[in-house]
Design a protein that fits this description.
Layout (H helix, E strand, L loop, with lengths): L1 E5 L13 H15 L3 E5 L11 E2 L9 H4 L7 H19 L5 E4 L4 H5 L8 E5 L7 H8 L5 E3 L2 H6 L7 E2 L18 E4 L8 H11 L3 E4 L5 H8 L7 E5 L3 H9 L3 E4 L9 H8 L4 E4 L4 H4 L5 E4 L5 H16 L3 H12 L1 H16 L1
Parallel strand pairs: 1-2, 1-4, 2-3, 4-5, 5-6, 6-7, 8-9, 8-11, 9-10, 11-12, 12-13
Helix pairs in contact: 1-14, 7-12, 10-13
Length: 353
């Protein structure tokens, strides 16, 4: 079997990961490879060479000065992205030897052109409905094969499709058990919808040290909202690789997960629990499916941010009292990467048959 994975065209499948989508695609690619399945991947150039993948490369669009001078010129990034996915699909239409295409991108073109492919095509929904993805799936209709990373996301798309839910998984060997420590931790993309500033406010309310890790994906938000909260106790430690993150999280008392949007899954919560580190999270989107006792607590979001901070802070002691071995066992039973990969392989075989 050979699988073509379509990911985000701007970011490579390599560490340090730009986000959970890239991390998921990397983990899935490695899991398939380890089971003797060939993998072709379309993503930003520079995927991890240790994965031994075939990268599907598309030549970037070259625009003339005249084209750039057009008064209706959209953002060049949008032009490049659109033609990158068009090139990807054109190659796949004419490829032989690929048994199934698994789309993990957030772009509409792979879905819109999928009925031209000679092989089955399945899309994993990693987000709530967007203005671009929704019409593409609507046009595909009953021919759409879809999975969703949580029941919450499946419900958000239920007006169009009936996704099969396959939760994301965690490599339990990479995210090893840690003995904990005195500090709190937050990890993820530094963007408004992930809410690291709320984690900082929770830590300040509790009088605790907090270490924040992740890519600075929104510098305006970082400089104007998060940076003013940083001090000797609330520190930003950088964009770390997976092993560095595992050590950081495993040596923390609890992990704060603070989404301010309908979080599709919350991979960072599963990763923290795999380290034995209990999670205190805000109950948005798919988070309550992931963060449950004995792995952690998901607290309701209040209308006022200060009330949310107070409610979360009040629950911190209960979270930290959770048994770390029980937290790890919860993650192993529910989010083991090996089981997730096997579920996808079963789906591939079903669609091919």
């Amino acid at each position: 079997m050979r699988i073509a994975l379509v990911a985000h065209d701007r970011f490579p499948i390599a560490e340090p990961f730009a986000g959970g989508l890239e991390s998921f695609t990397w983990q899935l690619a490695r899991g398939l490879r380890d089971r003797g399945i060939g993998v072709t991947v379309f993503a930003g150039r520079g995927s991890d060479p240790e994965l031994d993948l075939e990268e599907l490369y598309v030549e970037p669009v070259h625009l003339s000065a005249q084209a750039r001078a057009d008064v209706s010129m959209p953002l060049e990034r949008v032009v490049q992205e659109t033609f990158a996915y068009l090139g990807c699909m054109q190659q796949l239409i004419h490829r032989r030897g690929i048994d199934i295409v698994h789309n993990n991108s957030l772009h509409y073109l792979p879905i819109a052109l999928s009925d031209l492919l000679p092989m089955p095509f399945v899309t994993t929904l990693h987000t709530p409905p967007t203005p671009w993805l929704e019409p593409a799936l609507r046009n595909l209709g009953a021919d759409a094969h879809v999975t969703a990373v949580s029941h919450a996301i499946a419900q958000r798309w239920s007006h169009l499709v009936s996704p099969r839910v396959i939760h994301n998984g965690v490599d339990l060997a990479e995210w090893g058990f840690g003995d904990g420590g005195p500090d709190l931790v937050w990890m993820g993309r530094i963007v408004p919808e992930k809410g690291p500033h709320v984690a900082a406010l929770i830590a300040k309310r509790a009088g605790r040290r907090l270490r924040i890790a992740g890519p600075l994906s929104n510098m305006e938000y970082y400089e104007n909202t998060l940076a003013p909260l940083l001090d000797d106790d609330i520190t930003y430690v950088g964009h770390l690789r997976r092993r560095e993150l595992a050590v950081l999280v495993g040596s923390s008392a609890a992990c704060l997960v603070t989404p301010l949007w309908e979080e599709p899954f919350g991979l960072v919560a599963a990763e923290a629990m795999a380290c034995g580190t209990p999670v205190l999270a805000l109950a948005r989107g798919g988070i309550p499916e992931v963060v449950q006792p004995p792995g952690g607590l998901a607290v309701p979001v209040q209308a006022d941010e200060e009330d949310t901070v107070n409610a979360a802070g009040a629950a911190l002691g209960e979270v930290e009292a959770l048994d770390r071995a029980g937290v790890r066992d919860h993650a192993a039973r529910r989010f083991d990467l090996g089981a997730v990969v096997e579920r996808y392989i079963a789906l591939y075989e079903e669609l091919i048959a």
